[in-house]
Each structure stands twice: as structure tokens, then as C-alpha cells.
Design goal:
Blueprint lengths: L1 E5 L5 H19 L17 H10 L1 E7 L2 E11 L3 E9 L8 H12 L5 E7 L3 H9 L3 E5 L3 E7 L136 E2 L2 E2 H11 L1
Parallel strand pairs: 4-5
Antiparallel strand pairs: 1-2, 2-3, 3-4, 5-7, 6-7, 8-9
Helix pairs in contact: 1-2
């Protein structure tokens, strides 16, 4: 019997192991996840920190076969009617037992108001493509690493909701309006301007913000995760108390080093970080320590010996 149970942080080690094994076995049959062969799975597939983040930010379920964890599935909902299957993995020993199909139908029952489902999977995996098409998904887009799918169901009408669908609102102006709880999905907002607006507790998911300018914005307490921030410029920003963790220079390839210039890092902590080839130049290192050892003292001893 297949059931879904909400995952907890305590489940992260087991789910990470299952997900890693599932994608590594997938790679043995279909090749690496990426075109350049740099990874067996999507970004963070073998990272417990990524699983912990997913449990925190998405609807993450354990797939239970009787009393055993057979895999996992995480769902990100955009409002009430749209959802993305963020990840689905089944342990190799439980594959080809109709568990994936049952899981997808159970998920749809968990979110009965969702009528538009989206997901992406490896462009190489013919088995995955066949699986999703068999349960009603259709291909919508493809790049060198992924094929994207979509499934549309009959929408449940809600008389209390004003729906704008397939509408051209170009150059429309909204002023002194209440949009509390409004949903925007599959909307082209290129070159739109939003100013003097309360957007607290807003959720942005699966959004293209390339070349966007954010200026004079209060984003205290905001959460940024599972994002492509390659080549961004962050400047004139207050970062006091910021928590930056589990980042990289590109999920599947390096996009170049990070540059910190004229940054106040007073009393900051770098823990369990990769600092290979880091260059610290013309910086105030007063009271700076590495593993409890004073850098000033190390430099003093070095200078005495040369």
C-alpha cells in the first residue's frame, strides 16, 4: 500500500541517501543529468542541506511502501491553482512497481484545487518522458539539460474570484488598489514598474528576473533559495545579521569566483567553507582568526623569518 507522509528534518538523512542512490542509478542507465557530464542529478541532489531546505520551503512528502520509505516527492504551490513538482525520486529497489504513478495521483488528491501542474526532468531520460506523458503531462519546452512538462486539469470555479485570463492589460495602470491575496501566473510583466507598494509576505517562484533592478527595497527577513544568482551585483546594501549558507559557484559548472570589495565583514564567521585560492588584499584584519589562531600573529612571525 502506498501512502504519503509529511517529511520532517529528522527524515533528511534517509531521504538524502535515497535520492542520491536513485539519481546515481539513473545516471548509470541514461548518463549524467547534465550535458557536460558534471553531475548525476539536479543541483544539490546529494546534499542533505538541500533536502533540509526543501523540507522547510516546500510540501515535502515521504513515499511510504507499507512501513518503509520508498522515495520522496516535494511540491511547490503558487497560490491555490498552480503547483510545481520540485522533485520526485524512488529508490531503485522500489522502481517498476507502479509506485510513481500512484504517488502522482495521491499528490493530485492532496491539492484538489490545483489544475495546472508543471515539472522538469532530465532531457536524456526516455523512461521519465514516457512516464509523465502516460499520466497526462505534455512537453512544453526543452533546453540542453531539461525537458519541461505541464498537465492541465479542469479548473474548479470560484464565484468569489475575479479571473483575468488571456487578457491584454498592456500599459494598464493600477493605483491605490488592493491586490491582497492576488495570484499572477504565466504573466508577461516585462518592463513593468512596481513602486511604493507593500509586497510583504509575497512569494515569487519560478520567475525570470534577469536584468531586473531592485532599488531602495526593504527585504529584511526575506528568504532566497534554490536560485541562479550568477553574475549579480549586490551593492549599497545593509547585510547586518544576514545568514549566507550552502552556496556554490554554479550547480554544474563554475561561473567564476565571487568578489567582495569595500565590504564590512566585522566579526563575521566563515565556517566549513571552501576557501581554495582565496586572495585577501589590502584588508583590515584586526583580531581576525583562522581556527582560533591570530592572523596578525602569523603574519608577524612570517615577517620575522623572511
Amino acid at each position: 500500500m502506498i501512502t504519503l507522509q509529511e517529511a520532517t528534518f529528522e527524515d533528511a538523512p534517509a531521504l538524502t541517501a535515497l535520492q542520491t542512490t536513485a539519481f546515481d542509478c539513473h545516471a548509470l542507465q541514461w548518463g549524467s543529468w547534465t550535458k557536460d557530464g558534471s553531475s548525476n542529478g539536479p543541483g544539490g541532489y546529494n546534499s542533505i542541506q538541500h533536502i533540509l531546505y526543501s523540507i522547510k520551503i516546500t510540501h515535502f512528502y515521504k513515499i511510504m511502501f507499507n512501513h518503509t520509505i520508498a522515495g520522496g516527492i516535494s511540491i511547490f504551490t503558487s497560490g491555490n491553482k498552480h503547483a510545481v513538482v520540485d522533485k520526485l525520486f524512488i529508490a531503485p529497489e522500489f522502481q517498476n512497481k507502479n509506485i510513481g504513478t500512484q504517488t502522482m495521483y495521491l499528490i493530485e488528491r492532496e491539492f484538489p484545487r490545483v489544475y495546472r501542474w508543471e515539472l522538469g526532468t532530465s532531457a536524456k531520460s526516455k523512461a521519465n518522458h514516457h512516464f509523465y506523458e502516460k499520466i497526462g503531462y505534455r512537453k512544453t519546452f526543452q533546453d540542453e539539460n531539461y525537458i519541461y512538462f505541464e498537465k492541465k486539469k479542469a479548473s474548479l470555479s470560484d464565484p468569489s474570484v475575479t479571473l483575468f485570463s488571456n487578457s491584454d492589460l498592456s500599459r494598464a495602470e493600477f493605483e491605490d488598489c488592493s491586490l491582497t491575496g492576488a495570484e499572477f501566473f504565466s504573466v508577461n510583466m516585462e518592463k513593468a514598474t512596481i513602486s511604493n507598494t507593500n509586497m510583504s509576505h509575497m512569494t515569487l517562484h519560478d520567475i525570470n528576473l534577469s536584468q531586473t533592478t531592485l532599488h531602495n527595497i526593504n527585504m529584511s527577513g526575506a528568504n532566497f533559495g534554490d536560485m541562479n544568482l550568477n553574475h549579480i551585483e549586490l551593492c549599497q546594501a545593509s547585510l547586518g545579521g544576514a545568514y549566507i549558507h550552502d552556496t556554490n559557484l554554479g550547480w554544474h559548472e563554475s561561473h567564476g569566483p565571487i568578489t567582495f570589495e569595500r565590504c564590512d565583514l566585522t566579526e563575521s564567521t566563515l565556517s566549513n567553507c571552501v576557501l581554495r585560492g582565496v586572495n585577501i588584499q589590502d584588508c583590515d584584519i584586526t583580531d581576525m582568526k583562522i581556527n582560533g589562531i591570530s592572523v596578525e600573529e602569523l603574519l608577524r612571525i612570517y615577517q620575522e623569518k623572511i
